[in-house]
Amino acid sequence: MRAPSFTRGLFVALGLAILLALGVGVASVLTLRSVTREQGVTLVREATTLEAVQFLLVLSERRARHARSWLLSPEPRLRHELEVTRQEWETRLRELEESFTGKEEQALLARIRERQHAIQAVMDGLLARSEQEVREEDWRVRYEAELRPLRVGLDQELSRLVELQQESLQEAVRQQEWTRLRAITRLGMAMLGAVLTAGLCGVLLVRSLRQHRKAEARVLRSEARFRATFNQAAVGLAQVAMDGRWVLLNPRFCDILGYGERELLGRRFADFTHPEDLSRDEAHVRRLLAGELSSFTYEKRYLRQGGEVVWVNLSASLVHDDAGRPLYILTAIEDITRRKTLEEERVLLLAEAREALRLREEFLSVASHELRTPLTPLNLNLQVVLREARAHPEQSFARRVAQRLEAGHQQVQRMTRLIEELLDASRWGSDRLVLSLEDVDLSALVREVARRFEPVARRTGSILEVDASEPVMGRWDARRLAQVVASLLSNALKFGAGRPVLLRVEVEGGLARITVRDHGIGIAPELLPHVFERFSRGVSDRHYGGMGLGLFLTRYVARSMGGEVVAESTLGQGATFTVQLPQRPAESSRGEGVSLGEATVGPV
């Protein structure tokens, strides 16, 4: 944890600060002691030198006194003392010359030496004379004239040397006091720094300990929340050691596997994994430990107590410590046995539904063929009888029969169309609707279909207007196109009875367009988006018949040839249906016998 590390660092810093302060203090004391010793030696030397200078001054006065005494009474004893004094003077002067190093002191000693030589020369001259000569000569005049000026100058030089030595001694005393004060100040600053550092470290240590206690409390709360979340999770949670053994499990995990916690702890997950899933499990764990995966999720099977299989959705991820070392694998499982059972049931139901749909489509196909089989001879017989009845228009019975036969023929044709739609619907469901593409003149095809519907238009009282004079060539399935035009035209005449119906063919930009417009009842806005759906109707089936497959098949055929059909309508004002077809369908739709599955078809 970072908090204990920081606390240990504060303890170390506190110890170092105290040791540093003690070291500085000891060093200051030792330095003070050494400097004091050195400066004590210097003071002793300076004092000794001062004493020697002062003694030299005393010797100078003593020599002068002995010289005066000898001049007054030139006795041998006085001369001997004068000689002894002179030798001691020379000795002391040489010692001072060896001890002084300053330029000013050496210059003073040089002048003192010169004056001493001058005085000694005069004294040597006097000593060389006899006592009678000395007495006869006026010594005072000689002393005043020669020796006194030299003596005064010598005394001044010696006094100046004494002053310099006194100043040097005073400076040494001041240096010693300043050094002692500086050492004491340094020691005090060091101790003050140690106290401040120790205080700061103590404050930081107390703060760190408080933060550490708070962090520990947060960790404990977090662990408690984790335990509560772990144990109360709706999914099974487990910690898996690096060797594959469970080290921590929540109750939900135990419930899913059907064992108690004690029975699972310390056991390997491989012991409870379905044998068919074990190799995949171990492969994923190896990749996870190798760093190839950060986590993985898949469905697997466990073996519950008693050998029962339970399906789970397993998610696993590798947990690392702060240093990046792997700790354990955290796994979460969700029981999906119920979902798997439902999926298996759904697969079975889907297979059954597909089989039922196949049987239904097969039945519709067979029924359509079987229903159409008797209608063909019935239609032929009706047409024969109708022609014979029309051959005798002068007979009232023949006219009545012709009218009934005409109605029966129309019903047979209507039934034929319904059976054809039913057969097409069955082919669509089994993907067996086939296109036979060929070069077609769309205008001629539309005029032919319109010609077949002229009797219906006359019977409903509608005027059929056809605008298809210019040839429009394209590669389409002629029979399916005729079926599309017939379906749209039949609806227009049915729902726009008694009103004009327009049928137009035009071409623009490689697209052929068929427009069928009526002025009938129209389609409600809420029903218009659904008119092309299978079994959908835009009107009530109580007043208008049909199965609701015509427009569905129309759109499907149009899309199978790469086209589209759209509807526009205003309720009470009629409807307009427009079919757009490319003159050259896509390559996948070209050629004979192209199935709807191979054609370009949009969503239906």
Please describe what this structure looks like.
This protein has 604 residues and is α+β, with helices and mostly antiparallel strands. It is built from 14 helices and 14 strands. The chain has a 5-stranded antiparallel sheet with strand order 2-1-5-4-3, sandwiched between helices. Helix 3 (103-127) runs antiparallel to helix 5 (139-232) and helix 11 (442-452) packs across helix 13. The two termini are 65 Å apart. Residues 540-545 and 587-604 have low confidence and may be disordered.
Keyword list:
604 residues, alpha+beta, five-stranded antiparallel β-sheet, five-stranded mixed β-sheet, 14 helices, 14 strands, 63% helix, 15% strand, disordered C terminus
Secondary structure blueprint with pairings:
Blueprint: H1 2-72, H2 76-99, H3 103-127, H4 131-136, H5 139-232, E1 236-240, E2 246-249, H6 251-257, H7 261-264, H8 275-289, E3 295-303, E4 309-320, E5 326-335, H9 337-390, H10 396-429, E6 434-436, E7 438-441, H11 442-452, H12 454-460, E8 464-467, E9 473-476, H13 478-495, E10 501-508, E11 511-518, H14 550-560, E12 564-570, E13 574-582, E14 592-595
Parallel strand pairs: 8-10
Antiparallel strand pairs: 1-2, 1-5, 3-4, 4-5, 6-14, 7-9, 10-11, 11-13, 12-13
Helix pairs in contact: 1-2, 1-5, 2-3, 3-5, 9-10, 11-13, 13-14
Q: Briefly, what is this?
A:
The chain is of the alpha+beta class and 604 residues long. It is built from 14 helices and 14 strands. It has a 5-stranded antiparallel sheet with strand order 2-1-5-4-3, with helices on both faces. A 5-stranded mixed sheet has the order 8-10-11-13-12, covered by helices on one side.
